[in-house]
Amino acid sequence: MKTIKINSELWERAQEYAKQAGYSSASEFVEHILERELSRAEKEADHKEVERRLKGLGYLE
C-alpha cells in the first residue's frame, strides 16, 4: 500500500460522497475513481494506437 497526499478539503468532500454513495470508505471510493480513469485512459491510448496502425496501412486518412 502507498500513501498519497490530498488537499484536506478535497478529502472531506470524498469522504462525504463515499458515505452517500455507499462506499465502505473514502479510500475505496478514491481507488474506484482511479481505476475507472486509468482504464478509460488506457482504452483511449489503445484506440489511438489502432488508428495509427490503420493509417500506416492506408485504411484511414
Put simply, the count of helices is 2
Number of domains as seen in the coordinates: 1
Radius of gyration: 18 Å
Shape: elongated
Could you write a compact summary of the structure shown?
This protein is mostly helical and 61 residues long.
How would you summarize the topology of this molecule?
Blueprint lengths: L7 H14 L4 H31 L5
Helix pairs in contact: 1-2
Detailed description of the structure:
The chain is built from two helices and no strands. It starts with 7 loop residues before the first helix and ends in a 5-residue tail after the last helix. Helix 1 crosses helix 2. With 61 residues, the protein is mostly helical. It has one domain (8-56).
Task: Quickly list its features.
mainly alpha; 74% helix
